[in-house]
Amino acid sequence: MTSKGSPSLITLPVENVYRILDHLDELTIFLSLRNVCMRLNTVVDTYGRYQTLDTLKLSYGQLPHKIVQHLADILLTNKTLITLNLATNDIGNKGVQSLANALQYNTTLRALNLEVNKIGPEGAQYLANALEKNQ
């Protein structure tokens, strides 16, 4: 009797990965499967629901900096997201700095809601600098 390892998302045929993605919400696809590996990035990028994801609402949560940083990393390469709502997440200056670094290069995002996030003058300056560079 031979023992086979369990298949992983890395080795499954693309069609099977799409079937799995069909059962996940957009947030899970956006935050959990991006930047895992090159193959998954390619699979997710060609997945229909991801290609049409233009709005993401993550308001009224408590996003830890690790998640905000991951979101910023994704924004560096994402070409579909137009609206991002991060209101009331206590992101603070550190989180906004991560987002600002990504916003320097992201050319598709048009609306970003950061209200009620404990962003001070320092964080506002990060955003201003990023938007100045992204013209």
Overview in brief:
The chain is mainly alpha-helical and 135 residues long. The protein has 7 helices and 3 strands.
What does this structure look like?
It is elongated and about 55 Å long. The protein has a three-stranded parallel sheet with strand order 1-2-3, with no helix packed on it. Helices cover 47% and strands 7% of the residues. α5 runs parallel beside α6. The protein starts with 13 loop residues before the first helix and ends with a helix. The chain has two domains: 44 residues; 82 residues, Alpha-Beta Horseshoe (Leucine-rich repeat, LRR (right-handed beta-alpha superhelix)), CATH 3.80.10. The protein is mainly α and 135 residues long.
Task: Pick out its properties.
135 residues, 3-stranded parallel beta sheet, 3 strands, elongated
Number of strands: 3
Shape: elongated
Element pattern in H and E: HHHHEHEHEH
**Low-confidence regions:** none
Could you name the CATH homologous superfamily of the largest domain? Ribonuclease Inhibitor
Largest β sheet strand count, sense and barrel closure: 3 strands, parallel
| Helical segment count | 7
Please write the CATH class name of the largest domain: Alpha Beta
| Domain module tally | 2
Mean pLDDT: 90
| CA(first)-CA(last) distance | 62 Å
Radius of gyration: 17 Å
**SS content category:** mainly alpha
